[in-house]
Specification:
about 450 residues, alpha+beta, Alpha-Beta Plaits, Chitinase A, domain 3, Trigger factor, domain 2, 3 domains, six-stranded antiparallel beta sheet, five-stranded antiparallel beta sheet, 13 strands, about 50% helix, about 20% strand, extended
């Protein structure tokens, strides 16, 4: 077999292959031999049909089968021979040509990984860690305080307000038609927690105990429930009970209730330390992301179309799954796909460049490193290490190895970069400043 390569562009080549006649002929004879032994042909016992009958009946199918098989075999051999870094399934340019006594020829087009002659990893990075303010500490303590609030009946009657927990009965009508199956009784709802429709939130705020309020909600034409789409839903809601959420005092008792804290001062200090540790970790994650972003900026390489399509499909599928998890109807439009393309392209470039870094710096993941990670996971999860080893086999183990390799590569990238500490900037503001400077 002979083969030669013709580059089309930096990520696409044509592979021209010639298969000698004796190899093709041998394949055909082998197939005829199998058929002569196994074919069931009317008028002949199995294995007794004459060769000319076999050829007459199966000539086309045999030649097609041998052609397909030899194309696959020859492509694999040619790819290995030329050490092509293939990233997509080869596609036949035209139907293979077979000339009896001469052989078979065909051409396939295949995408390859782009060549990276020099990989520039001299990155200048700025680490930015968001400072923890007194307001941040107060907000976090208030969040914990809210979880320790108690709900009690009102000491004296008053209008409903944010934070109150109401027990209501309600009936429902849609465009004036009563819907008994949608009614409810003794339903507990809380004002101000963001779980209610804005119209119901506003309609019940200020309500008195025992009062009935009529609340109209106009549903959009894109409403998932087709019965309600484009219609007006009216809730007649009666407040049967009203309770208020009482917050505990900011004192030592609250600190002891929240956790193993001797005093409110200790709670405040530990809360600050925890927020600072979280901010530091977030800053390191942002630094990793920045390193990848700068690596892509400094090393402009073309992207194979098939890899871009795969990444785009993966992102779209992830988006649709997220929408479903949030209870929303996934809706895609051409504009959304176009907006995703630059991010998908950047992800593919990053993966290609990290792969090149792995080869040039001889960075790989060992079985010992995978085992160490599994032990770490076992300690954190409480699972037995043997169970995790069984769980992380096949594709799941490959995913773990890929993640470990990426972490190792980014760690190496940071080690050879110039890193300075800079003042905190809101991410959107920082992006805008960079865009302004580049313009």
């Amino acid at each position: 077999m002979q083969s030669q390569i013709s580059p089309i562009d930096p990520v696409t080549v044509e592979l021209h292959v010639e298969v000698p006649w004796d190899r093709f002929h041998k394949g055909v004879e082998t197939e005829y031999g199998k058929l002569q032994k196994n074919a069931r042909i009317k008028g002949f016992r199995q294995g007794k049909a004459p060769r000319n009958v076999i050829v007459q009946l199966f000539s086309k199918s045999v030649r097609d089968e041998v052609t397909s098989s030899l194309v696959n075999e020859s492509v694999v051999e040619a790819v290995q021979k030329h050490e092509l870094p293939v990233v997509s399934t080869p596609v036949l340019k035209d139907a293979p040509k077979v000339v009896d006594g001469t052989g078979m020829t065909f051409t396939v087009k295949v995408e390859v990984r782009p060549k990276v002659e020099t990989l520039d990893t001299a990155l200048e990075l700025v680490r930015r860690v968001k400072p923890v303010t007194d307001a941040d500490v107060d907000a976090e303590i208030e969040r914990m305080r809210q979880t320790h609030a108690v709900v009690e009946p009102l000491e004296a009657p008053r209008p409903a307000q944010k934070g109150d927990v109401l027990t209501v009965d309600y009936t429902v009508s849609v465009d004036g038609v009563a819907k008994p199956d949608m009614a409810g009784s003794d339903r507990s709802i809380e004002l101000g927690n963001g779980q209610l429709l804005p119209e119901i939130e506003a309609g019940l705020t200020g309500a008195e105990l025992g009062q009935t309020r009529s609340i109209s909600v106009a549903r959009g034409a894109d409403e998932a429930n087709k019965e309600l789409a484009g219609k007006t839903v009216v809730f007649e809601m009666t407040v049967k009970e009203m309770k208020e959420r009482k917050l505990p005092a900011l004192d030592d008792e609250l600190a002891k209730d929240i956790g193993d804290y001797a005093s409110f001062a200790e709670l405040t200090q530990k809360t600050r330390e925890r927020l600072e540790e979280s901010a530091k970790a977030q800053g390191e994650r942002a630094l990793r992301d920045l390193a990848i972003e700068k690596l892509v900026e400094k090393n402009a390489i073309p992207v194979p179309p098939s890899l871009l399509d795969q990444q785009l499909r993966a992102m779209l599928q992830e988006f649709m799954q997220l929408m479903q998890m949030m209870g929303q109807k996934p809706q895609l439009n051409p504009m959304m796909v176009e907006e995703m393309k630059p991010r998908a392209e950047a992800k593919v470039r990053a993966a290609l460049l990290l792969g090149e870094l792995s080869r040039k710096a001889s960075i790989a993941i060992t079985a010992e490193e995978v085992e160490a990670k599994l032990k770490e996971m076992a300690e954190k999860s409480g699972k037995h290490i043997a169970k995790l080893r069984v769980e992380y086999t096949g594709e799941k183990r490959e995913q773990l190895e890929t993640q470990l390799l990426e972490d190792k590569l980014i760690k190496h990238l940071l080690s050879v970069s110039s890193i300075s500490d800079g003042p905190w900037e809101e991410p959107n503001k920082a992006k805008a400043e960079e865009a302004k400077e580049s313009a």
